[in-house]
Amino acid sequence: MKKQKTLIYRCSSCGHEEPKWLGRCPECREWNTLTEAAAKNESRQVSKNGLPQTLPLSTVNPMEGSRIGSGIGELDRVLGGGIMKRSAVLVGGEPGIGKSTLLLHLAAATETKGRILYVSGEESAGQLKLRADRLGINSKSCLERIEIFCSGNLEEIETVLNNIKPVLVLVDSAQTLFSADAGSISGTVNQMKFCSYELINWVKEHDATLFLTAHVTKEGFIAGPKTLEHMVDTVIYFEQNDKTSGMSGTVDCRFLRAVKNRFGSIDEIGIFTMGEHGLSPVEDTGRLFLVRRDGELPAGVATAAVLEGTRTILVEIQALTIPAKGTISRVFSDRIDSGRVSRVSAALEKHLGLRLSDQDIYINAAGGIRITEVGVELALACALYSARTGLPLPADLVIAGELSLTGEIRPVQRLAARVKTAVNLGYSSFLGPATESQQDQTIPELKVSKNIKSAVKIIYNNVHPNEKNNN
Q1: Which of 91, 95, 124, 419 is the most buried (most CB within 10 A)?
Q2: Structural domain count of the chain
Q3: pTM listed for this prediction
Q4: Which CATH number belongs to the domain containing residue 339 in this structure?
Q5: pLDDT tens-digit readout, 245-254
């Protein structure tokens, strides 16, 4: 038999690929630009005898790794620089946190001329239009490229996909998908796995991208099978903080975190504020998590410079110590890992003689942001010391550093960037570790400390509080 070549149709204008010929490219919307081409960039090739064969890396088209901008800077930051084509993104969060609002913002702002399909199994078309009007999505060109389909039936969704050939598919939500081939009840484990797998395969074959929302359980994990997270390329959690009165007034922050990302880092976070016009990206986060005060700080408060990916954020760390109510002291901390708080308090008791083993310890990060970076440990130690002794820290001081169990202060990443952020926000001094970088050593605002004892002496002008302050 004659050898059958695998052919595709590639757009000569933007490089978009389709398995069948179309008169108009779904990506750039140009007419008669799809031309026949050999599918040399496929990762699975078939030899003459019909057996699978390998593909040399040199023959792979680098356009497969291209990205498109989402139009939302904070989302691009979390995704690693933009939306990767032929990828699937799972967005998890509590009901009402703003997942549907985020998808509608994404549909309106995505930097593409192709069609966008919004599949909703939870809301009607009228409800989606009311939401779009409230969010200010009223551009004619924007509304024309967004297609709405309100159904959770997989077979109907696939028919719509094959008809309009979208470049971006938004599904809200995974729990509403169902197919007759996977049973008669929607929301089951088999339904979610089967329907999600079929949608993921479709977008990978048609050079599109899938965003899939999912609710979370009361424990905070995405509801449904764990294999759903393994099937997608990126898993993002949408979190909410308690409304806090900060330097910018009362803010309702939403945090976007990636816990899995095949195409970028998981260290970056996206920060949004929720208002009457939907989600607004927060570009300048310098003063967002600082509390507005006049005069000196109260005891137990320290300002920390922490890294969230490549961005420096100043956060107020609050500590409170009170005599333990029982024979065993307890640590209450949900924004900073309680194990880290216990290690820092143990180091303070060992190297400064500060008695904390008979105290209940309460730790909070203003603004409700969850901090995982090790650079917060020195600021945490200073806040605990201030709370236990009743001596407030200087109001113009910012702190960063990692505290070891031996009482030494270890270097942290991007120290110069942390100092620069603090200076730009009006702080005059910075306490941090010694560093090997010559550039960091010449920073005039930086006060270098090698261990926790010297750090306390620097803060309180070489006056060590008496043990009687420990009550």
Answers
A1: 91
A2: 3
A3: 0.77
A4: 3.30.230.10
A5: 454 455 678 8
The domain of 44 spans 7-55
Give the pLDDT confidence score for residue 470 in this predicted structure. Answer: 44
Q: Which two tokens stand for residue 122?
A: 């939870």
Q: What is the pLDDT of residue 49?
A: 60
User: What's the whole-number average pLDDT of the chain?
Assistant: 85
Whether 296 maps to a domain, the answer reads no
For 308-362, how does the pLDDT look when each residue is reduced to its tens digit (9 = 90+)? 888 889 999 999 999 998 888 899 998 899 999 999 999 999 999 999 999 999 9
Amino acid at 150: C
Distance, CA of 110 to CA of 72 (rounded, Å): 8
Residues 26 and 136 in one domain: no
> According to the model, what pLDDT value does residue 463 have?
44
Assess if residue 295 is contained within a domain. Answer: no
What's the token pair of residue 251? Answer: 């803010």
Cα→Cα distances 400→61, 143, 270, 291, Å: 45, 47, 22, 18
Nearest-angstrom CA–CA distance, 77 and 343: 32
Q: Is residue 60 part of a domain?
A: no
Q: Which of 466, 422, 416 lies closest to 442, judged by CA?
A: 416
Residue 409 CA: distances (Å) to CA of 375, 388, 412, 432: 10, 21, 9, 8
Crossing angle of the two packed helices 452-459 and 377-389, in degrees rounded to 10: 60
Q: Give the CA diameter of the chain.
A: 95
Any idea what the CATH number is for the domain that residue 138 is in?
3.40.50.300
Whole-number Å distance between alpha carbons of 382 and 45: 61
